[in-house]
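Q: What structure does this chain adopt?
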Amino acid sequence: MTNILIIDDEPGIRKTLASILEDEKYKVFTAEDALLGLEILSREDISLIFLDVLLPKMGGMEALEQIRKDWPEIEVVVISGHANVDMAVRAVKLGAFDFMEKPLSLDKVLTICRNALAIRHLREENRRLKKKSLSRDEIIGISPEIEQIRRVIKQAASSDARILISGENGTGKELVARAIHRLSGRANRAFVEVNCAAIPDSLIESELFGHEKGAFTDAVSTRKGRFELAGGGSIFLDEIGDMSAVAQAKVLRVIQEQKFERIGGEKTLDIDVRILAATNKNLEAECAAGRFRQDLFFRLNVIPIRLPPLRERAGDIPVLLSHFLSEAGEEQYDFDEAALEALKSYNWPGNVRELRNLAERLRVMYQGCRIGEELVTDLLQKIPRAFGTQGAEEKTLPSPGTESRFPPALFNMHFNEARELFEKSYLEFQLSQNNGIISRTAEAIGIYPSNLHAKLRKYGIRTER
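A:
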């Protein structure tokens, strides 16, 4: 039940307001002065206050200041029989939700009450979602490697130094970039992400730097680029190892000069943006092979952060798994020691992303079950061993021994059911191997991106990166 507090020295006002609000099923507390009202606030969970201006012992405006200081989440509606514009303006400046004149209108009281409670609900929901979002962005782990990364992030975040984050697909490079931005002095400004691998070479310059109207055939209006949108904040150049040579030269110039021009533009724009970059490639080897500019590598690699693959920090697996399983609810999962050892000994070619997918499968299919070694082994083998994988990926998969390369349950299903199970598992695996990028996955498996989108919708496969 929603609790509302009325602070007014007039018994008639308290009684009338309380009657109106109780008819709407609110629980009402009343106080004849501000001191008594503050005492009620200290022991009751109040959502909304109706506060008179002229009160004994402590004035309403003084009480409003105290309430905004100690209970900033509570909405306050100020009421007065001696209202004027200056008083209303002062009340709003002090943080009041609204100002009402006596005699009070029944309809207006109820309208303001509903609006104030709706605003409070939205703020609470926003805080909850923000907290949940921060939880999803949290870097989880207790291993020495992760502790060291946290220390580097904390030290580097306060500066504007460029940072190069390296690691295999699925190790959490974006999480590190977001953590750096969140702890920096730019936290309240934009965090703009650019997936360099997903943007065609013909569009990358326009995406990064924008264009003027008429700059090329399809430029029907002026468009800001990602660097301009990130002004004052941070830009995250993900998979920068896949950036074309032309785009590399442009980015290098921006880093050196802190200015650029839109395509087709004559005006030079100054920018203030922090550059964070990430790659799953060995950029030093790419430089040696002539595929990446050495001067750009040195500019980006001011502070290097390497994220270890999950197989190198197996001790974090129980902590990560517990975190992922608790994200969607309160269900308890009981893993025996053999099951945890099986998880730790697996190679995890998809890294943390693959572990998250496993946790989601457990939440859907095995709520409340005791998780043993046999079940874990079956789940780990089911997806990877269902495909004829290529080259390097195949080396990371469990040895099939003399068993079938397909889950035994597959042969007990009807044809259509088995085909759909295989297709869903196949697409999930291929997405994990291609960093969740639709265009790259479609190219790898030989179908059009539009067809791949349709299949992902059919099977309810999410493409969170």
